[in-house]
Amino acid sequence: MRAWPYLLLGAGCISTFVGPSWARGVRVRGDAVVAAHARFTEEGRLLETSILATDDDDVPLPNLWLELRGVAGATERVEACVKGNRTPTVHSGEWLRVRTDAAGAACLRLGSVPDKGTLVVRFGGDLLHGATESSVVFDRHHSQLKLLTFRHIAPSLTVAIESKTAAFSAALNQPDGSAPRATGLQVRLILGADKELAQATTDAKGTVEFNVATSALGPPGPERLRFVFQGDAEHEPAHAETTLTKTARVVLALPTPPKRVVAGEELVLDATVEHQGGSVNEGGVEVLSGAISLVSSPVIRGVAHLVVAIEPRAHGSLPLTLRYLPSATYLRAESPLHIDLPVGAPGFASRGWFVLLVAAAAGAVFSSWRRSRAATERSVAPGPLLPGVYVRENLQTPGRFRGRVVDAHEGTPVAAVDVIVRHATLDGDGILAREKTDANGAFAFELPPHHRAELRIETRSRLHISESQALPRGGSLVVLLTTRRRALLARFVRWTTRAGPPFDTATEATPAEIRALATERPDLCQWSNAIERAAFGPKEVDAALEAQVRAVEPR
Predict the structure, then answer these.
(1) Which of 85-94, 276-285, 339-348 bottoms out in mean pLDDT, i.e. has the lowest?
(2) Is residue 414 within 8 Å of residue 461, measured between CB atoms?
(3) Separation CA 265–CA 343 (nearest Å)
(4) CB of 157 within 8 A of CB of 225?
(5) Cα gap 138→47, rounded to integer Å
(6) Number of C-alpha atoms within 13 angstroms, CB side, residue 268?
(7) Measured in Å, how far apart are the chain's first and last C-alpha atoms?
(8) How far apart are CA 459 and CA 407, in angstroms?
(9) What is the CA angle 160-162-164, rounded to 5?
(10) What proportion of the chain, given as a percentage, has pLDDT over 70?
(11) How much is the pLDDT for 537?
(12) Cα(381)–Cα(264) distance, integer angstroms
């Protein structure tokens, strides 16, 4: 008999997913905005008060009860501004309550008010809107100008600088929501502090429109955009502002096509990075071979200087991909740049070291010669660019280790990294050695040469992913680490590839693109926002922030 509350709850949950559109609607608590204006009319006998109530999205709030204070003695003489209209009111000797109409407006004329004072309009808040209030000063002995306010201006605007023109519009209305009686009011459009873009006049509905050449908007990035009315003999000045974000499409190019390169050597590429407004001075460029990142470099004065180490075993045609890595959301990466690099085999001179090595080892025992040759080949091979711990063994110094920790993509040393040697144990932490890298990313430690337990080397860094590998008998180590920031972005790209349509876009999807496609997936929107803030924001991505982002990753 007591199961009916649970049945009702279950029916409500089901209606949220399978019911009509009104069953799925979700209302979120926001703010209310009250605009008020008071002026004397009828030769100064009546105080006309106009009120408009909206929410923080500029949507009118109908049937809202507002409280007026500062009108003591006037509450016995109240009438609507327009004869025949009825404005619901409730009043006492100290305050007056008035209810807004279907357009969120209310207009009253009050008699028996003092010559000067302050009228306060207050909204106490409700289930969906926070409390707010507005005050207006009135004075019977001064001329009363009409108040105008800008309405219907988006809180943020976005313009692509590749387009030829950009259109902006606003509506200059009275606080009660009606259009101004006088047309032809001049409005200025100002960018930033004082750059005037255009002037235009209002039409009969109070609307003003601007068409501006995007070349006048300046470089990409966010900037303040203002609508300004200076006022006239009948109207008070008014202004409003919004945030204008100017986006740009970034294009990569190689002014000089890459020439044929010999395997085992380095390829130097100077990639130009530009948008329609000029050179790009932020972000970076990455070179990939398939899915493997070879090198990346920051963009400085429109150029990314890239030095790519070519694998000694490469031959024929090596396909490479260059892509731009934006550091700001207003820079949009164009399609990656693909090149086919011709790679030739090394000449005899480049193999001279190998001939000398064979001659020097000719008198050695055959088995020993083979080990020496294998060790030598490993020591001269360039270190892989994938993150991990790489070993160049030196069998002459068992138990002695030295090495460096570098960023796998930037090639820069990583300081303050904990390098730990550990062995399996049933009790305790099993740590045999612990060192911290210096400013050059260098470290060194020594272990007993007779230690035969299986050992592992581990790294721990605040801003980089940890790595671990079995430890050899002794030698020189190179540890390549990838940042937590880049690892999160890589997880994001892998997810979009696995997810399939519509998320597997032609190029690697950006968080903004996934957010636009995932209108019905609030979990994807939340994750995309978290990825965007971590990957491109100014905040350092440590283990705690990485855990927060991965906690909202879709399963």
Answers:
(1) 85-94
(2) yes
(3) 10
(4) yes
(5) 8
(6) 2
(7) 39
(8) 13
(9) 100
(10) 75
(11) 81
(12) 8
Question: 554 vs 85, which has greater pLDDT?
Answer: 554
| pLDDT exceeds 60 at position 200 | yes
Class of domain 382-481: mainly beta
Query: What confidence score (pLDDT) does residue 23 get?
Result: 41
Q: How far, in Å, CA of 101 to CA of 90, rounded?
A: 15
Ordered DSSP codes for 130-159? --EEEEEEEETTS--PBP-EEES--SEEEE
196 — phi, psi (to 5°)? -80, 125
Please report the sign of the dihedral spanned by the C-alpha atoms of residue 359, residue 360, residue 365, residue 371.
Answer: negative
- C-alpha 178/C-alpha 106 separation (Å) is 11
Q: Cα–Cα distance between 548 and 41 in angstroms, integer?
A: 60
Cα dist from 142 to 39, 193, 231, 388, 480, whole Å: 10, 33, 17, 78, 76
Q: What is the mean pLDDT of residues 443-471?
A: 81
Q: What is the 3-state secondary structure (H, E, C) of 12-30?
A: HHHHHHHCCHHHHCCCCCE
For 327-370, give the secondary structure using H, E and C: CCCCEEECCCEEEEEEEECCCCHHHHHHHHHHHHCCCCCHHHHH
- Fold match between domain 32-139 and domain 254-344: yes
Tokens 């204008």, residue? 244
Q: Strands (DSSP E) along 42-164, which ranges?
A: 46-55, 65-69, 78-80, 89-91, 95-99, 105-110, 116-123, 132-139, 149-151, 156-160
CATH 2.60.40.10 is the classification of domain 254-344 = yes
Q: For residue 49, give the nearest of 102, 114, 98, 88 by alpha carbon.
A: 98
Q: Which two tokens stand for residue 43?
A: 């030769």
Neighbours of 406 (CB within 10 A): 19
Here the tokens at position 88 are: 């619901």
Q: What is the predicted pLDDT for the residue at 36?
A: 78
Give the start-to-end residue ranges of the domains of the chain. 32-139, 149-248, 254-344, 382-481, 484-551
How far is the C-alpha of 493 from the C-alpha of 404, rounded, in Å?
A: 30
CATH class, range 149-248: mainly beta
Specify the higher pLDDT residue, 17 or 84: 84
Pairing of strands 261-262, 337-344: parallel
Contact (CB, 8 A) for 503 and 496 = yes
Give the pLDDT of residue 430: 75
Q: CB atoms < 10 A from the CB of 241, how many?
A: 13
CATH number of 32-139: 2.60.40.10
| Confidence bin at 198 (pLDDT 50/70/90) | very high
List, for residues 232-273, the tens digit of each pLDDT value. Answer: 877 778 888 888 999 999 999 998 888 888 877 888 889 999
Are 174 and 49 contacting, i.e. CB atoms less than 8 angstroms apart? no
Residues 308-330 pLDDT 10s: 888 777 778 889 999 998 877 88
DSSP state of 60: B
Phi and psi for 433 in degrees, rounded to 5? -155, 150
What is the spatial distance between Cα 348 and Cα 351, in angstroms, rounded to a whole number?
Answer: 5
**pLDDT band, very low/low/confident/very high, at 464 (cuts 50, 70, 90):** very high
Helices and strands, counts by H and E, the chain: 8, 34
